[in-house]
Design a protein that fits this description.
The structure is a homodimer of 404-residue chains. The first copy, chain A, has 404 residues and is an alpha/beta fold. The first copy, chain A, is built from twelve helices and 20 strands.
Chain lengths: 404, 404
């Protein structure tokens, strides 16, 4: 008898009808002889409703109190699902983060999981109960309610699966799997039956919204097999496979896009190491995540530094850079806060030298300019203007035969 | 520096505007040099919204899961109030029942408080924080969420006040104090400046809705001074006074009414002690609260037994009684599920023999029949038909000079 962890997101539990459908889904899994732990998000719309209440009181509500407020959303969905299962004759028990000992640090609004005490969950499973856990939330050492930030419920599910040594962690969502690219942009986009963990991590951190990168990272670190499935229609979804073997002949597996990117270029850095120390310290203190970093030497006298970040952080970062100009640590800067980062992802990229050549061919054929490019073992990322994005997705999808 | 516990009910925190008004109220109390612990109910309407969701899934939802669901309501109101105070420059911290160690038994939906660990609250108060606690909820020995049932937030507030040895427990509500009778029925009804604890307890258990009898009982047991105040207008409300001295010349302090009463009469009891054992065991097992009990010997051969209960329990109780008839423990029964219990309450009743006489005079003058009467030291209760209720309230209010 294996333990299966099933995570259901906000739209999957967005109404009483949906909650009843989730109950049926769990019963199906149980009837196949598995023990089930369900991890839920709040009913869709609920988190926004609560956020709206908070923001009416205070534009910058207390982070601790915001977590206390938001965590109430999952408490509603888990108890309702338990009722739906009990009504159907299945014993079920809903549990909050503090009840399963899901301990986090005390960084409110984006807490990190420290450990989970699986005792209570195992006891409940042994008694034949379906265990229904509130995702997204945690509990710090002082017993304060914390939340895990964006994608938090996925991370909860993976961490819980790991702590229970589950057979598989299934992420039920509103799409039926991981696609070669966004099917709303490229109708020929194909569902992938399996993706390697490495690829999924690169996809998640490159804008593929189906899974949050933190949860994939967590799954990787704990070797927890993942599966992405639709909670609206049946199917085997996409398995996130830990096998290194590339199962297709295509070097590229998928194309991911991260909208809302911004880029800042710093010209004429007079004292390179001091500037970088000051810059990245200030960015870190302002809680700004830097994505790509590149340094280019235009002439021999000074260096230029380029980095990318989320558009929402652009103004804050620009202010920091202007401060450095006033301190004479650099001459001037320029930036663009309307860019898209596109990424080609595939385990085959590392062993296939043709990928870059084909990418540049495609850019040339379509007369598209790129602003920054960087590559890792299994990924090539680059920035383009938003208006060329959709065209380029289609062109690259065809070029790399992702529809086949 | 004294600790004041202030409890705000659902209508007092029913909107963001109301929550901001409560924040101002707390700030006023703090500015008078007090440490404040606020105990809140859920925003009005929220508990009903959640109950409605539960009942759509299951007409008889799991009691454990219902408590989990309902407890989310207070989590919302406490965190929003904390935000409102923090926005105004006051430090505040919201705490759930499990965070203040409010331990109850595991009787879901109507749990009883076992003890409270005041450590966290005292620490927060010493740091200058306003402490905002979720009322109505508790936590059993296994860490399950429980709720205290009707009037639960009042009970939470009193228990918290007792555990902190507060100076006073203030119950803010939508009325400005305790009245001689319901002002919607008798326009001459007068607000009482103070009421003795005994009187308040009798009033609460006789239908006066302003305080729940359990909270008054708890306050009495812990000698915790109470005050009932309006959260909508200023005023000193009604103090619940532990002084035994009757402060008025009137033997009667107030008239309370409990609608929705039912009465069952059991005729021809063949084996008195066996019947009573069976009857009260069955009623207790069905969770039916019996109010008044009387036994009358009509002739010398058999006894009749009369008891009253809430109208909602009438059908269940009638079934139990019919079972006893089938077991030949009694001949027959009759009942009435449309009655009102009225009570005259006053510390002066015990020392004033005229009260019963005046009551019967009044009944006679108004040609009103009563069905059952019982009296204690400071209370005379009796059942009447609903249609004579309002008339009798007015007549008794005048007869006992409660408007003076």
């Amino acid at each position: 008898m294996a333990i299966i962890v099933q995570k259901f997101g906000g739209t999957s539990v967005g109404s009483l009808e949906r909650i009843e459908a989730v109950a049926e889904q769990i019963i199906q899994t149980k009837s196949r002889g598995h023990q089930v732990v369900a991890v839920l998000s709040a009913m869709s719309g609920e988190t926004n409703r609560l956020l709206d209440l908070a923001h009416q009181l205070d534009a910058n509500p207390s982070p601790r109190e915001l977590d206390m407020l938001l965590a109430s959303g999952e408490q509603v969905s888990i108890s309702l699902l338990a009722m739906a299962l009990i009504k159907r004759g299945y014993s079920a028990v809903s549990l909050l983060a503090n009840q399963i000992g899901l301990r986090t640090n005390n960084r409110f609004n984006k807490a990190r999981i420290k450990y989970i005490d699986n005792t209570r969950m195992l006891t409940e499973l042994q008694q034949g109960h379906v265990v229904i856990v509130a995702g997204f939330q945690g509990c710090d050492d002082e017993g304060n309610v914390t939340t895990l930030g964006r994608g938090g419920s996925d991370t909860s599910a993976v961490a819980i699966a790991a702590s229970l040594q589950a057979k598989e962690c299934q992420i039920f969502t509103d799409v039926d799997g991981v696609y070669t690219t966004d099917p709303r942009i490229e109708a020929q986009a194909k569902k992938l039956d399996q993706v390697s963990f490495e690829e999924m991590l690169e996809m998640a951190s490159s804008g593929a919204k189906v899974l949050h990168s933190r949860s994939v990272e967590f799954a990787g670190a704990h070797k927890m097999p993942l599966r992405v499935l639709s909670s609206f229609k049946s199917g085997s979804g996409t398995k996130i496979n830990f096998n290194e073997a590339n199962l297709t002949n295509n070097p590229v597996t998928a194309i991911a896009s991260q909208k809302d990117e911004a880029m800042l270029t710093l010209f004429g850095i007079s004292n390179d190491s001091l500037l970088k120390k000051e810059l990245f310290l200030a960015l870190a203190e302002a809680d700004i995540e830097v994505d790509m970093i590149q340094q280019a030497s235009i002439n021999h006298k000074s260096n230029d530094l380029i980095f990318t970040l989320h558009r929402n952080d652009y103004l804050k970062a620009d202010e920091i850079v202007n401060g450095l100009i006033r301190s004479n640590l650099l001459d001037k800067s320029c930036g663009d806060d309307k860019l898209v980062k596109m990424s080609l992802i595939g385990s085959g990229i590392r062993s296939n030298t043709k990928v870059s050549r084909q990418l540049f061919e495609c850019l040339h054929e379509n007369n598209i300019e790129l602003f920054l490019i960087s590559s890792s073992e299994i990924k090539i990322s680059f920035l383009v203007k938003p208006q060329v994005h959709d065209l380029l997705v289609k062109a690259l999808h065809q070029k790399f035969k992702l529809d086949q």
